[in-house]
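Page 37, continued from 36.
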């Protein structure tokens, strides 16, 4: 028996009569903790729990002991190669025989062990709090929060330094400490964000990578992020939070070209929330960006219907451009029906327009729509309004030049065409 073990045994025997209500193994565990012999302390507390699984003192102190071990592993995970090789305590530790030959693998194993141990500590803290909330409820909560904050704050600091890989590991550690409720969500969302940032970096590298290794790494990171998001989506009871998570998943899928999956998710969301104006607006904008003008127009129309039913939906003015976007998307279809449908939408948009830029865009679409329909008189009027707003607008003078010509107004046509050619000639590369 080692000297320290004999000392513990003597002290335990001495206090046994004075601690009739305390399990002797709990007493032994506390003494081992004081000696920083955490593996022996853990074994003692576990033995006490065999006698009484609801021994709150043993549960609480087992949690502390396991957390101490996690702290040791975390420190070891940050050691340099030389520190690992020169540390005599590490070299003498029988539990580490054969594990120190590869310092990098040792560090990784220590970090993984810390995650498991912190998770285990939280489990025992919670059990102690359930058994004796009066004594251990607040203490358990505070200790869990302290462990969580240490990991989370470290992750944020690393993220701020653009040390993305390390940051992801510490966010994962924070999640291992407390995966429940708000803490779990706070840790997992950044894990996804960091993984997607790393995937972006890999995709950038893939542009010059001939063996596709960077692309494969990016796809692996996206797969990992998507798995986390899927789990969060499955357990989310808040519709708004769930939609935000689905949005993140859609962005992740698009990042690696999984467009069909992303669009299917969007369609699924819309099917579940057919009257959700924010969602309708977002999907319509995506369709517009993808040059799917007819689909975008149909969605913008749905949005307009929602606002006309309940004007309060646009109380903030967030959707002020809906009528213009509806008109523009109809115009962009490039069909007579599209041009005709664009005009009333843009006329409504013009009545609501609050800024010069918005008026300019709307009036230009009205001028072009009328011109395409060979309605030259209104096309001329809108083009003249456009010139008043932006005197050097090349499209306005082009419409005036052609509309006057086709409307048998040669004098006005000559002046407009001359101005158009002047503006065209002044453009770079003309």
């Amino acid at each position: 028996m080692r000297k320290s073990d004999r000392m513990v045994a003597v002290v335990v025997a001495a206090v046994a009569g004075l601690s009739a209500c305390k399990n002797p193994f709990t007493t032994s565990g506390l003494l081992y903790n004081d000696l920083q012999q955490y593996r022996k302390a853990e074994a003692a507390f576990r033995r006490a729990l065999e006698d009484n699984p609801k021994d709150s003192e043993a549960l609480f102190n087992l949690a502390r002991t396991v957390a101490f071990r996690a702290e040791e592993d975390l420190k070891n995970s940050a050691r340099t190669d030389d520190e690992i090789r020169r540390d005599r305590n590490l070299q003498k530790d029988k539990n580490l025989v054969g594990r120190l030959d590869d310092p990098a693998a040792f560090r990784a194993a220590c970090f993984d062990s810390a995650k498991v141990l912190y998770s285990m500590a939280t489990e025992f803290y919670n059990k102690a709090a359930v058994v004796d909330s009066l004594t251990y409820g607040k203490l358990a909560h505070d200790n869990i929060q302290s462990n969580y904050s240490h990991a989370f704050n470290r992750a944020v600091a690393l993220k701020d330094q653009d040390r993305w890989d390390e940051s992801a590991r510490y966010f994962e550690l924070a999640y291992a400490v407390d995966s429940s409720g708000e803490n779990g969500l706070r840790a997992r969302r950044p894990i996804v964000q960091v993984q997607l940032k790393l995937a972006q970096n890999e995709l950038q590298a893939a542009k010059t990578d001939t063996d596709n290794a960077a692309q494969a790494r990016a796809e692996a990171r996206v797969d990992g992020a998507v798995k986390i998001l899927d789990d969060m989506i499955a357990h989310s009871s808040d519709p708004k939070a769930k939609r935000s998570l689905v949005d993140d998943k859609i962005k992740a899928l698009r990042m690696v070209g999984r467009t069909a999956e992303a669009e299917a998710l969007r369609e699924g969301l819309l099917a579940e929330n057919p009257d959700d104006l924010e969602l309708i607006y977002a999907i319509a904008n995506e369709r517009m960006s993808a040059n799917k003008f007819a689909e975008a127009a149909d969605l913008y129309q749905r949005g307009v219907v929602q606002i006309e039913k309940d004007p309060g939906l646009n109380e903030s003015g967030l959707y002020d451009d809906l009528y213009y976007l509806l008109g523009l998307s109809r115009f962009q279809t490039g069909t007579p029906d599209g041009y005709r449908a664009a005009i009333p939408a843009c006329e409504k948009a013009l009545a609501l327009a609050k800024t010069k830029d918005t008026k300019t865009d709307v009036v230009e679409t009205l001028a072009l729509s009328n011109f395409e329909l060979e309605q030259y008189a209104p096309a001329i009027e809108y083009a003249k309004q456009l010139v008043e707003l932006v005197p050097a607008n090349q499209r306005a003078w082009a419409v005036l030049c052609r509309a006057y010509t086709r409307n048998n107004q040669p004098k006005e046509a000559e002046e407009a065409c001359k101005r158009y050619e002047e503006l065209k000639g002044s453009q770079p590369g003309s």
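Residues 158 and 334 are 51 Å apart (CA to CA). Flag for discussion at group meeting. The chain has a mean pLDDT of 89.
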